[in-house]
Amino acid sequence: MRSTLLALPFIGSALAARPFVNEPATGIEELFDSLPAGNLVPLNQIVALHDFDYAARKFLIPANYTYYRNGAGGEWSYRNNLEVFQRYRLRPRVMLDVTGVEATLPTTILGYNFSAPFFICPASRAANGNPTEVERGLVEGAAAGGILYNQAGYSDLSVEEVGEIAAKNNQTFFRQIYLTGNDTTDKTAFNRAKAAGAKAIIWTVDSAADGVRHRAARYSMGSANGGFSLQTWGEYKKYKTWTDLPIVLKGIQTVEDAQEAVANGADAIWLSNHGGRQVDGSPSSLEVALEIHQEAPEVFKQIEVYADGGVRYGSDVLKLLALGVRAVGLGRPFMYANVYGTEGVKHLIKLLKNEIINDAGNAGIADLHNISPRAINWNVNHWYS
């Protein structure tokens, strides 16, 4: 007992000293650290999603980069979002026919067809990364790649402008709405979204209060919304009477709320902690998905479940799909890719599709729609030191 107690302080010290790696050291800094600030890394040298973060940080002024990068408090939830996927190892199976896995890449979201089980999250103020193309690069890139674009509530383009672009591409998009509490104003927002061609409403329910974002405060880059918002099941039922569009609840962080959503007839739920930007200490979507899988796995069959937060690799997507998540969202990587405009967004989509199918093949996963939870070892939580 004595030796164990004496060792505990050293264990804590070791964990506290464990460095945080925002991007892995895969060689890009060796090639481009001498590149002057304000210059872009050549797009053909971007070989991974993390590279877009590096390139954006080199290119953007600190305030604009910080708007996308910031997290709440000490940014432990932001950090956890990125690290949590590597705590659970794959269980690769061999001697299986995986040659048809690419054909299983397409999926449906609320009945609409898409080329892959991932999408662009609603992320505000694209002009901070690309003042020329703003959200156009995201919309057109999503259309070219055949994936879902979710327009942020605080976009630089209006919902009508996004609708016009989407209509030209025969494209499906959803619209995020931050509700004001003024019924007249909010009904108008719902009606505008439908009239513009949005096929679903995203109601972000994890931001009832303002996010405490220290990094952002240093650059006066606070959260998009301020004050307190009324967010109750009664309000949700009221909103359902305003529109015949599906309303997706974004920001579910417990199994209890997932079950409440099913009980209240929600159209779909979205596991998210707002990119770790609202309250530090909130769980990652992978942890929430695992909690649901362990305590109420039926939820994944009762309702469509999406998830976002910290996804940077094809294997990250596979781990969420293995638990029952239908499709996975990415926010920051696409905002960083948008500094290159449409071509950057298209390149990211191509990279991630390639990683998903190759990681699946190497893990012995033949069908992305039928990944067994046993493809992952959920029993051992590996901490890297």
TrEMBL record:
It holds the Pfam family FMN_dh. The active site is at 274 (proton acceptor). Its cofactor is FMN. The keyword NAD does not apply. Glyoxylate binds at residues 67, 178, 213, 274, 277. GO terms for molecular function: FMN binding; oxidoreductase activity. FMN binds at residues 176, 204, 250, 272, 308-312, 331-332. Residues 1-16 form the signal peptide. Residues 41-381 form the FMN hydroxy acid dehydrogenase domain. Keywords: Flavoprotein, FMN, Oxidoreductase, Signal. Belongs to the FMN-dependent alpha-hydroxy acid dehydrogenase family. This is (S)-2-hydroxy-acid oxidase. It comes from Microdochium trichocladiopsis.
